[in-house]
Automatic annotation (TrEMBL):
Lineage: superkingdom: Bacteria
Official protein name in the record: Enoyl-CoA hydratase/isomerase family protein
PANTHER family listed in its UniProt record: 3-HYDROXYISOBUTYRYL-COA HYDROLASE, 3-HYDROXYISOBUTYRYL-COA HYDROLASE-RELATED
Keywords: Hydrolase, Isomerase
Length: 364
């Protein structure tokens, strides 16, 4: 078990507390294993009726995977292959799958930063989940900023947001707040941080058969504080649908270039800083994921992440952002014009035969 994952059971609720505040609760392999182990144990425990996952810090729910760890182990071999990397991504994606199909109510309090791997342990699931946001929520899938793609099932949940919102969020890595998250279908209810203590008191006394109903009823009193219909994404939705349609990042950037609005010009400037290759790979991922189930998406992403480390783009992105902190990644290829279709498609080539894929046992 991990020192950074604290678990307890009270009033038939299993609590998972992420407690690695100095790293914004970035997920290590030990943390992934600890969360997986307790969820598997509670799944068969009749005394646990629901799961509530939250953070010990108001700054972050979970900022994602531990990218410095990715860099250290990924640069240890000439090909970027590492047994620790293999284990991390296999077990993280298996955890995302476990959460997605968890048979008990799974409630995530996404207070503060929730990005990347943090989205994977909060967005997964449909039937039994409840996702809470606050005024502190800073949500994103920012992987293109480090030469990666929106993994942890990101292809699945981003491709199912209304219109082209997921395409916009995946290609830019932009941060959104509570109202935007509610509008995009990436959150369910809003509760201000000033009321979290009252929420926890409610949980300690709850007698409802479905904890989610009790939380929704509690949150209803704060709905006017984060109206999805007045969010920034709501006002930009038509523009985003137009600008981010199609299967070509170059075409998207051309549309942005021709649009003189502040939004289009800001978005273009943002995308010009991202990895041209991984933006192209991400767009292909999102288009493919639209018609794939959760298990198939995770297996595809598991292949993709191996290709990313072998290519080296993610290692260069992490170097520039976290290691040397020069914020000047040398992307390869350097421009969208140099990204070939064959190179993009190579990121989707099978790494293992079907019978040997590390996530072959996942089923929807």
């Amino acid at each position: 078990m991990s020192d950074y994952v604290i678990t307890s059971v009270s009033n038939s609720i299993g609590y998972i507390l992420l407690d690695r505040p100095k790293a914004l609760n970035s997920l290590s392999l030990d943390m992934v294993r600890a969360i997986s182990a307790i969820l598997l144990r509670w799944r068969g425990d009749a005394e646990v009726k629901a799961v509530f996952i939250h953070s010990s810090s108001e700054k972050a729910f979970c900022a994602g995977g531990d990218i410095r760890f990715f860099y250290d182990v990924g640069t240890a071999t000439p090909t970027g292959d590492s047994a620790l990397l293999e284990d991390f991504f296999t077990e993280e994606y298996a955890l995302n799958h476990l959460i997605h199909f968890y048979p008990k109510p799974y409630i995530a309090l996404m207070n503060g930063v929730v990005m990347g791997g943090g989205m994977g342990i909060s967005q997964a699931g449909e039937t039994c989940r409840l996702r809470i946001v606050t005024e502190r929520t800073k949500m994103a899938m920012p992987e293109v900023n480090i030469g990666l793609f929106p993994d942890v099932g990101g292809g699945h949940f981003l491709s199912r947001t209304p219109g082209e919102l997921g395409t916009y969020l995946g290609l830019t890595g932009e941060i959104i707040g509570a109202a935007d998250a509610l509008y995009a279908g990436l959150a369910d209810v809003y509760i201000p941080t000033a009321e979290i203590h009252a929420l926890m008191t409610l949980l300690s006394k709850n007698t409802a058969s479905d904890l989610r109903i009790a939380i929704r009823d509690f949150a209803a009193g704060f709905a006017d504080q984060a109206k999805p219909e007045t969010s920034r994404l709501a006002t930009l939705h038509n523009a985003i649908n137009h600008l981010f349609a199609g299967n070509s990042v170059s075409t998207i950037c051309d549309r942005l270039q021709q649009d003189s609005s502040d939004f289009a010009q800001h978005t273009l400037a943002t995308m010009q800083k991202r990895s041209p290759l991984l933006m192209s790979v991400t767009l292909e991922q999102l288009r493919r994921s639209k018609n794939m189930n959760v298990s198939a998406c995770l297996r595809m992403e598991r292949n993709m992440v191996r290709h990313c480390f072998r290519h080296g783009e993610v290692l260069e992105g992490v170097r520039a952002l976290v290691v040397d902190k020069d914020n000047a990644p040398q992307w390869s290829p350097a421009t969208l014009n140099d990204v070939s279709e064959n190179l993009v498609q190579s990121f989707f080539a099978p790494v293992w035969p079907d019978y040997a894929h590390p996530l072959r046992h996942l089923q929807d």
